[in-house]
Amino acid sequence: MTVPALPEESFHRVLCVVAHPDDMEYGASAAVARWTARGIEVGYLLLTRGEAGMPNPPEETARLRVAEQQAACAAVGVTHLTILEHPDGVLVYGLDLRRDICREIRRFKPDVVLGTGYEIETPFGFDQADHRAAGLATLDAVRDAGNRWVFPEQVDDEDLEPHSVRWLILPGLAGFATHGVEVTGEPLRRGIASLEAHAAYLAALPDHPAPEDFIPKFTAVSGKAMGVEHAVLFRAHDLQAPPELSIGEPRSGDA
User: What is the secondary structure of 164-219 as a DSSP string?
Assistant: First the structure.
């Protein structure tokens, strides 16, 4: 069965929440390029500055990676970039992380939040700890943001109104995805350019393939699931849809 397209015609504002500089650029940024070209406002929230990701001294690495992330955002039309200073490599799931993500959701007021997976084991091996913490905290912060009594100081002292997100979308793979975004052509080219913007970071990774070599291969595989040349796949959750209730036949003796 062909994977359907995300209902992006109803999207107005998308907030992407990731742990590190470069996390958005391994495919998802091509979808972002398509959205911004269609007038959808996209914001990025990075939870760390990525200071543990290179052999340079941490502060030097942080400055370099922040600059590269700004260039990556420019490549796909993202102008709203917020970078927090939670510690890279030892990101901790907890109330502090949920609070900070909730604050950005209430501030940016997205109808869509793009998060990361929170599974321990993935088809590519064990996921990195920061990614798992970020994904789970984002999932909880989406619910927190709509509840006036969770982190009420943001409402009372920071004048941030509660905000209910419509869609939570997570990266998907063929066979597990619910929806996709076609990125054939210009969106794919801009997505590749966004990863190329992390030039110093990629140069510090041994034997890292060139973005133009592997990103199109990945999106081509995903494209087959949609019946298009290139695509990015997602698992999408409509948080405002009525719950699906499974009601069985009455048992003997039930009224």
Answer: --SEEEEE--TTT-SEEEE-TTHHHHHHHHHHHT-HHHHHTSTTPPPHHHHHHHHH
β partners of residue 42: 14
pLDDT per residue over 90-145, tens digit each? 999 999 999 999 999 999 999 999 999 888 777 677 778 999 999 999 999 999 99
If phi > 0 it is left, if psi is from -120 to 50 it is alpha, else beta; for residue 39 that is left
Residues linked to residue 46 through DSSP beta bridges, in sequence order: 18, 83
Tell me, what's the pLDDT at 132?
A: 96
| Buried/exposed code over 85-102 (b: 16+ C-beta within 10 A; e: otherwise) | ebebeebebeeebbbbbb
* Element housing 112 (H / E): strand 112-114
Phi, psi of 120 (to 5 degrees): -75, -45
* Three-class DSSP category at 41: strand
pTM given for the model? 0.93
pLDDT of 41-95, one tens digit each? 999 999 999 999 999 999 999 999 999 999 999 999 999 999 999 999 999 999 9
CA-CA-CA-CA dihedral for 245, 248, 251, 255, to nearest 10:
50
* Structural tokens at position 124: 């590519």
**Cα 157 to Cα 144: distance, rounded to the nearest angstrom:** 17
**Quick count: other Cβ atoms within 10 Å of Cβ 215?**
25
The three state secondary structure string of 63-95 is HHHHHHHHHHHHHCCCCEEEECCCCCCCCCCCH
- The pLDDT assigned to 254 comes to 45
pLDDT of amino acid 255: 42
> Which burial class, exposed, middle or buried, applies to 237 when counting CB atoms under 10 A from its CB (0-12, 13-18, 19+)?
middle
Q: Work out the burial of residue 213: count CB atoms within 10 Å of its CB; fewer than 13 is exposed, 13-18 middle, 19 or more buried.
A: exposed
